[in-house]
């Protein structure tokens, strides 16, 4: 008899300055693409923007959404705008893979871009880019 134990951590956090957000998101997209290519996955990218009930001011959201748009544009793969489906604390990039029956499943998510909420924003403020790995949900 064999017993297997597994510990799975499908979450990562990147802390960076606002000026680094675009490049860090681009690096995360490159990594996701690298892994998905190994397994032969095809995928779709969606930028989910500010929902109606959100935290923070519009200026902060504008900068966050702009950084994600620039990263997606530089990444060079087609992407869609998914207006109003961002997390309440920040925009996100949803990545859906297709199975053999062409069903789509949300797999990786660059989950939100959290900025300092205390009003003391500056170029020295840190931002968190979260990746929740596999969510198991479907689109």
From TrEMBL:
Segments forming domain Aminoacyl-tRNA synthetase class II (G/ P/ S/T):
9-114
Q: What is this protein called?
A: Aminoacyl-tRNA synthetase class II (G/ P/ S/T) domain-containing protein
Look up keyword Protein biosynthesis and say if it applies: yes
Q: Name one GO biological process term.
A: threonyl-tRNA aminoacylation
- Pfam family example for this protein? tRNA-synt_2b
The GO cellular component terms are: chloroplast; mitochondrion
Which GO-annotated molecular functions does the record name? Answer: ATP binding; threonine-tRNA ligase activity
Quick one: where's region Disordered? 113-139
InterPro entries attached to this UniProt entry: aa-tRNA-synt_IIb, aa-tRNA-synth_II/BPL/LPL
Recite the UniProt keywords alphabetically: Protein biosynthesis
């Amino acid at each position: 008899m064999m017993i297997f134990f597994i510990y799975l951590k499908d979450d990562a956090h990147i802390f960076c300055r606002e000026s680094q957000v675009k490049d860090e998101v681009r690096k995360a997209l490159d990594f996701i693409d690298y892994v998905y290519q190994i397994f032969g996955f095809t995928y779709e990218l969606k930028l989910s923007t500010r929902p109606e009930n959100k935290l923070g001011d519009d200026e902060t959201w504008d900068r966050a959404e702009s950084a994600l748009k620039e990263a997606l544009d530089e990444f060079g793969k087609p992407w869609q705008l998914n207006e109003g489906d961002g997390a309440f604390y920040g925009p996100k990039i949803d990545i859906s893979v297709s199975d053999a029956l062409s069903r789509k499943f949300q797999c990786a998510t660059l989950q939100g871009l959290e900025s300092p909420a205390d009003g003391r924003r500056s170029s020295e403020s840190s931002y968190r880019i979260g990746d929740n790995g596999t969510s198991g949900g479907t689109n």
